[in-house]
Amino acid sequence: MEYFLSEEQKIIKSLAKRISDEYVSKVAIKYDKEGIFPRDILDLLAYTELTGVYIPKEYGGFGGGVMEMCLVVEELSRNCAGVAVSYAATALGAYPIILYGKEEQKKKYLPKIAKGELIAAFALTEADAGSDVSSIKTTAEKKGDYYILNGSKHWITNGGEADVYVVFAVTDKSKGPRGISAFIVEKGYEGFYCGKKEDKMGIRSSSTTELIFEDCKVPKENLLGREGTGFIIAMKTFDRTRPGVAAMAVGIAQGAYEHAIRYAKERVQFGQPLSSFQAIQHMLADMYINIEAARSLLYSTCRMIDSGAKDFSKESSACKVFASDVAMKVTTDAVQIMGGNGYVKDYPVEKMMRDAKVTQIFEGANQIQRNIIASEIIKEY
Ligand SMILES: Cc1cc2nc3c(=O)[nH]c(=O)nc-3n(C[C@H](O)[C@H](O)[C@H](O)COP(=O)(O)OP(=O)(O)OC[C@H]3O[C@@H](n4cnc5c(N)ncnc54)[C@H](O)[C@@H]3O)c2cc1C
């Protein structure tokens, strides 16, 4: 399919593809098995300046948008979604600063994130506040020149590895979602610790941990936006980063599809390659149709967001839901096409099937995305 990417976007995509094929593919299975954080790949992405593709030029980035970020995520995910999510989680941590940071905050953090000198993370979810994010309990109390944070966060991607965390906490309990605020918390701040590391089904090279705040002192100038705007900051950030999950899903699906085709052409049963059986051909055809449909919706959504459109929650949720459901279906079918070999760790498709699952869960589970889409379309008509 021709997607009419700009010359720069084609260069970004092909550079990310090269890194993915030449480096990520070599370490994907080992890093997955041993749970190794892909710092070497992130360093390579920094060296090639892909860490800055979505950061505005005035803060040292390439000046691209969600599309450029998604192109990198998609290509990395073709070989390892764990590597891709470690890259994408920095974008999730950087976007609140891009969107709501004060000039001093942008100047302090964004150039270093663009250069890959800082890894970022986004900390909203808690043990008892997953889909219902407005029920978070971590508190931030203003005392003199500091906010004092107390509480804990759950499931934080890049936890323990990141240098900068955008953390959401309650500054005024009586105001519900309007009493939530966002803060930039640096690794090493007094009273800020990293807790348990999760032993996950997939994306195992990425780090997912608890974060603990015990009278953690955060300078008052690290408040993002105004007090009480945290919920809006989180939602507006997700509108821009859910396409990143869709890109991960498209990349995983594309990777599994490529493996399945190659395998189907090589593996002979009943004296013929598997690819000559119509049942297999139809599965491959459906994979192709679904992947192209998911990619088309993803790229259209990215173009809409980057055009400066005001409201795109529905489109952003739709591409996340569609692409993640496609990734689950395509990877499951890829395992089926490869039979027993699909089910063992000697080939990468069983990893891809495990990795695909999380795209239906994180950054708002698909049920929640369908709730968002339904509420928007019911308002429209
Ligand atoms: C690997 C991984 C990495 C993550 N990284 C981050 C991160 O970096 N930062 C961060 O803040 N969070 C992160 N998360 C958290 C993630 O966003 C949540 O797991 C997700 O939003 C779902 O919340 P939950 O797990 O508590 O599920 P729950 O909210 O308990 O939901 C369980 C199930 O019930 C369904 N459900 C819940 N409410 C409704 C409803 N109203 N209608 C219909 N169905 C409903 C859900 O869709 C889901 O299927 C991560 C999670 C994982 C697994």
TrEMBL record:
<keyword id="KW-0285">Flavoprotein</keyword>
<feature type="domain" description="Acyl-CoA dehydrogenase/oxidase C-terminal">
    <location>
        <begin position="228"/>
        <end position="377"/>
    </location>
</feature>
<protein>
    <submittedName>
        <fullName>Acyl-CoA dehydrogenase domain-containing protein</fullName>
    </submittedName>
</protein>
<dbReference type="InterPro" id="IPR046373">
    <property type="entry name" value="Acyl-CoA_Oxase/DH_mid-dom_sf"/>
</dbReference>
<dbReference type="InterPro" id="IPR009100">
    <property type="entry name" value="AcylCoA_DH/oxidase_NM_dom_sf"/>
</dbReference>
<dbReference type="InterPro" id="IPR036250">
    <property type="entry name" value="AcylCo_DH-like_C"/>
</dbReference>
<dbReference type="Pfam" id="PF02771">
    <property type="entry name" value="Acyl-CoA_dh_N"/>
</dbReference>
<keyword id="KW-0560">Oxidoreductase</keyword>
<feature type="domain" description="Acyl-CoA oxidase/dehydrogenase middle">
    <location>
        <begin position="121"/>
        <end position="216"/>
    </location>
</feature>
<feature type="domain" description="Acyl-CoA dehydrogenase/oxidase N-terminal">
    <location>
        <begin position="6"/>
        <end position="117"/>
    </location>
</feature>
<dbReference type="InterPro" id="IPR037069">
    <property type="entry name" value="AcylCoA_DH/ox_N_sf"/>
</dbReference>
<dbReference type="GO" id="GO:0003995">
    <property type="term" value="F:acyl-CoA dehydrogenase activity"/>
</dbReference>
<keyword id="KW-0274">FAD</keyword>
<dbReference type="InterPro" id="IPR009075">
    <property type="entry name" value="AcylCo_DH/oxidase_C"/>
</dbReference>
<comment type="similarity">
    <text>Belongs to the acyl-CoA dehydrogenase family.</text>
</comment>
<dbReference type="InterPro" id="IPR006089">
    <property type="entry name" value="Acyl-CoA_DH_CS"/>
</dbReference>
<dbReference type="Pfam" id="PF00441">
    <property type="entry name" value="Acyl-CoA_dh_1"/>
</dbReference>
<dbReference type="GO" id="GO:0050660">
    <property type="term" value="F:flavin adenine dinucleotide binding"/>
</dbReference>
<dbReference type="InterPro" id="IPR006091">
    <property type="entry name" value="Acyl-CoA_Oxase/DH_mid-dom"/>
</dbReference>
<dbReference type="Pfam" id="PF02770">
    <property type="entry name" value="Acyl-CoA_dh_M"/>
</dbReference>
<dbReference type="InterPro" id="IPR013786">
    <property type="entry name" value="AcylCoA_DH/ox_N"/>
</dbReference>
